[in-house]
Amino acid sequence: CVTCRNAKKQAAADPVKLPILTPLEAQPVNVDKMSLAGNYAYRITFSDGHNTGLFTFDHLRELGEIIE
Asked: DSSP string covering 4-16, please?
């Protein structure tokens, strides 16, 4: 998301600093909600508030194969 992208740019500008995580950022991220988006993807809402983007079935399958 835009917020995360901006944070990464700031961190890259000063790579010597170690980022300090907020308590919310230190928590594991869970899936709060999943809904179908057409016949090819899921729209996923995460516990950290991220809820944009579609996750295609093919992409999710690829991620699963990486874990195995």
From this structure: HHHHHHHHHHSTT
